[in-house]
Amino acid sequence: MYTIQEVSKKTGLTAHTLRYYEKEGLLSGVERTQGGFRQYTDEDLERLSLICCLKNTGMSIQEIARFVQLTHEGDHTLKERVELLREHRERVLERMEEMQKHLDKVTWKLNFFSEKLRAYEEGKAEKK
Amino acid sequence: MYTIQEVSKKTGLTAHTLRYYEKEGLLSGVERTQGGFRQYTDEDLERLSLICCLKNTGMSIQEIARFVQLTHEGDHTLKERVELLREHRERVLERMEEMQKHLDKVTWKLNFFSEKLRAYEEGKAEKK
DNA sequence: CATTAACTTGGATTGAACTCTAAAGAGCAG
DNA sequence: CTGCTCTTTAGAGTTCAATCCAAGTTAATG
Asked: Choosing a second label site near B61 at 20 to 30 A (CA), which of A111, B26, B81, B118?
C-alpha cells in the first residue's frame, strides 16, 4: 500500500496529476484509509503503468478514460478494447514514421548549417 | 507566388494558422499585393517546410521563433543555430526511443487481450 | 498533546497552440 | 457596376492537460 506521494515518486506524476487522473476516470476504485487518504495497491500501480504508456504514446485523457470504462464493463467489451488498442498502435506507428521523416529533414538541415559554419569559421580565420 | 489559401492546401495548415505563425514570428517578411494580400514565394514555402518539420518533431512555437530570429541575425549566429538543431535532434531521438518502449508495452497488452478475447469467444461458442 | 507535515475537496487558473468572429477592404466573373 | 468570394485585422474564445489555491482534515513525531 502506497500513499499518493510514494506513487508520485514511483511514476513521476505529481500528486495533483494523480488526483486529476482519478477525477477524469483514468484510475478509479483507489482505496482509502478510514481518514479518507488514498491507498494505492500494486494492482493500481500496474493499471497506472498502462495508463502512462497510453498517455506517453499520445492517447488523449478522454480516450484512456473510455478504455478504462470498457475494462470495468467486463469481458463482453474485450473485442472493442482490442480494436481500440490496435488502432492506437497503428496511429502511433504512423506518427513515428512521420516523425522519422521530419527528423531526417532536420538532420539534413543540421548538416547543411554545420558545413556553412565550418566555411564561415575558416573565412574568419583567414582574415586574421 | 501563392495566395494564403494555396499555401494552406500545400502545407495542410489552415489560413488561420499561417497568419498565426506569422504573428508569432515563425515566418516573417511575406510579401503583399498592393491591396495587402499575402503573396508567398517558393522560398517562403521552403522556410515553411523546415518550420513544419521542427513543429512536427515537437519543437515549441517559441523555440522555432527563436531559431528563425537567429537566422535573421546573420552568419555569426550559425554556431548557435547548429547547437539548437543538434540539441533538438537529440531530444527527439530520446523521445522516440521512450515512445518505442511505451509502445512495446501497449503491444504486449494488446496481445494479452487478444488471447483473452480468443478464450472468451471460444467459451461462448462451446456453450451453444 | 501540540505541532507540523501530508492529505482532502471543489473550483479557478495557466499555458500552448490554435480557432473563431466581426467588420471592413480587395479582386474577379458576368 | 453588381454581386460574390477571398482576405485583412485585432482580439476574443476554445481545448487539452495539467496546476494551483483555499480551507479544512488526518497522520506522524517530539
From this structure: A111
Q: Do A50 and B109 touch (CB under 8 A)?
A: yes
The residues pairing with A2 across neighbouring beta strands, listed in sequence order, are A40
Query: Protein B19 CA to nucleic acid D11 C1', in Å?
Result: 14
DSSP result, B57-73: TT--HHHHHHHHHHHHT
Under CATH, what is the fold of the domain B1-59?
Multidrug-efflux Transporter Regulator; Chain: A; Domain 2 (1.10.1660)
pTM of the model: 0.92
The single-letter code of the amino acid at A22 is: E
CATH node for A1-72:
1.10.1660.10
Low-confidence stretches of chain A (pLDDT beneath 70): 128
User: Which residues in chain B have Cβ-Cβ distances shorter than 8 Å to A99?
Assistant: 56-57, 92, 96
Residue with the three cell numbers 462451446: B126
* Arithmetic mean of pLDDT, B47-57: 96
Where does the pLDDT of residue B125 fall: very low under 50, low under 70, confident under 90, or very high at 90 and above? confident
Q: Would the CB atoms of A82 and B106 count as touching at under 8 Å?
A: no
